[in-house]
Amino acid sequence: MVFRRKGRVATCVVGAVLFCLLAVPVADCASSRARVTSVSPLNRQVVREVNRVRSRHGLKPLVRSSSLNRAAAKHSRSMAKDGYFAHESSNGSVFWQRIKHFYSARGHRYWAVGENLVWASPKMTAKQAVKMWMNSKPHRANLLSKKWREIGLSAVHSTSAPGDYQDRAATIVTADFGVRR
Question: pTM to 2 decimals?
Fold first, then answer.
């Protein structure tokens, strides 16, 4: 998914979501069962793999952004704890609003963000995550976009993720892309 703001004009291009499922209401007791941990090595490995693929296509590498990292972390944890898989937040707000809270457009003439999501049960490697994105037209377009300058990434693992994950072990990755000028 991509959202751009240029001056006062805003456009939102919505792509298909790999493994996208509708958010399912989850009982409070289910979300309290999920033990969610950050998978820091996978975060670094996915960024490295994304930049390796971009380099093979003649594109500049993306720089890690702490703001985008925080936006991605919030979303990955929320999906794992609350048992949904979607670009929208658990409260129904669109992805770019969540990212904008962390990665402000204030003071910039041009601001754009995009997001890729992927999950696997129980685990996945960086190569698997990027391969799944490359096999999906809208996710591939995000990975290979010349406009992106920064990336934030969050991989989390849940031992028994509720809802869409059917109380199974799941690894969930959120990649948030951004550019501000």
Answer: 0.82
Rg (CA), the chain: 16
The residue among 46, 10, 60, 53 whose CA lies nearest residue 152 is 46
The residues that bridge with 116 in the sheet, in sequence order, are 175
Query: Quick count: other Cβ atoms within 10 Å of Cβ 35?
Result: 13
Beta bridge partners of 171: 120, 157
> What type of residue is 33?
R
Chain Cα centroid distance, residue 37: 16
pLDDT band of residue 122 (cuts 50, 70, 90) is confident
CA angle 150, 155, 156 (to 5 degrees): 150
Closest Cα to residue 181, out of 133, 78, 111, 82?
A: 111
Is the predicted pLDDT of residue 30 greater than 60, yes or no?
no
CA–CA separation, 160 vs 61, rounded Å? 35
Pull the structure tokens for residue 135. 């096999």
Q: For residue 164, what is the DSSP state?
A: G
Paired tokens of 99: 């990212």
Which range, of 3-12, 56-65, 97-106, 163-172, averages the lowest pLDDT?
3-12
